[in-house]
Amino acid sequence: MKNLKKSYEKLYKIKPLMRFKTIISTLEGIVFGTSEITAGAPHFVDNMDIKRYMSIAIIALIPSAAAAVYFFKLHAVELILVSYISGGIAEVLFALIRKKDIEEGFLVTGLIFPLILPPSTPLWVASVGIIFGVIFGKELFGGTGRNIFNPALVGRLFVTISFPQIMTSSWQLPFVDTVTAATPLGLFKTAHVLTPYIKLLLGTSAGSMGETFRIGVIIGGLFLMFTRVSNWRIPFSYIGTVLLLSWIGNFFLPAKIAPPLFQLLSGGLLFGAMFMATDPVTSPYTLPGKLIFGFLAGIVTILIRAFSGYAEGVMFSIIMMNGFTPLIDSFVINLKYRPLRNER
Predict the structure, then answer these.
(1) For the chain, which terminus, N or C, has the lower number of CB atoms within 10 Å?
(2) In the chain, where the domains are located
(3) Helices 123-137/50-98 angle, 10° precision
(4) Per-residue CA distances from 125 to 13, 76, 165, 248, 272 (Å)
(5) Nearest Cα to 281, choosing from 168, 175, 154?
(6) What is the pLDDT of residue 44?
(7) What does 83-133 look like in DSSP terms, one character per residue?
């Protein structure tokens, strides 16, 4: 392996290839690992870096991605490929322009984005969405680690607003290409019909590609928490708030607010709470801040689901709380570490 790496490093000495130094160094990191070390003592070992986060997150998404391919066949594979290719090109172009390494964080964004799309989404819409999400959700802020909003959600929000007819009118049922139906949340909002819970668990009802098989979502989310890639405080406070408020709301306004278990198992609540609200870049880093983030996201989700024109509120709630993340952390820090005042 050492000889192979030495041979690979000779590529840096070929002047015509220096235009593509960013791509060459990225491939070197993927194949051979990083060669960067601290110059001197002390050395600290951390259990988290971007490669570990990326690897664990992708493993956690495998059950949802596999279920999407199983339910929606070739088109699911096409959407995932289009997301990776289109978003990857945008990533590479920005890396070349800035003369920086390509950041591996996109591998997670590129998989999450198609999983939160309706199964019948045209490929060109998926391409437009992921490119918009990468550029306006991440690159304009400076790249991975500097973005305020979750890039996958930025892309999803953009195509939802830009192409409402495509994104909200028809939802393909699993295993059937030509039959569409309303989502469980849509059915409740328009006809007060509760979809059987077993259908919601197994993924045989309409919904976004990666959110319908909720058993897989739960397994993946617990895996993220077990490996400490995500912190349990956000999903627990988020889901707990939705359950509590829907229990109270369903008692007083049963026609507006669905029962707690239905709220939990319908829409993108589980997927959003497990995989998007826990994004370490766009969520609070203080522990109390994580609880506040989840609590507020739960309130916004219930309010949008019950009283707005949209059946689902998870996407809007997480995006909104992303914007409040710096304020939440600042509030917690200022409250916990109050500045000393000179007493006269």
Answers:
(1) C
(2) 50-336
(3) 90
(4) 41, 14, 12, 39, 21
(5) 154
(6) 45
(7) HHHHHHHHHHHHHHHHT-PPPTTHHHHHHHHHHTS-TT--HHHHHHHHHHH
Residue reference for tokens 């024109």: 309
Burial class, 38, CB count within 10 angstroms (exposed 0-12 / middle 13-18 / buried 19+): exposed
Task: Using alpha carbons, select from 51, 59, 33, 46 the residue that is nearest to residue 226.
Answer: 59
Q: Is the pTM of this model over 0.70?
A: yes
Determine the Cα–Cα distance for residues 87 and 91; give it in Å rounded to an integer.
Answer: 6
Collect all residues with Cβ–Cβ distance below 8 Å to 31 and sequence separation of at least 6: 8
Residue among 135, 132, 152 nearest 143 (CA): 135
Mean pLDDT of 326-334: 94
The Cα–Cα gap between 62 and 225 comes to: 16
Structural tokens at position 165? 């007819």
Q: What is the pLDDT of residues 201-251, one digit of tens each?
A: 999 898 999 999 999 999 999 999 999 889 999 999 999 999 999 999 999
Bridge-partner residues for 172, per DSSP? 180
- The residue whose two tokens read 């589980």 is 270
pLDDT in tens, 4-23: 767 777 777 777 767 666 66
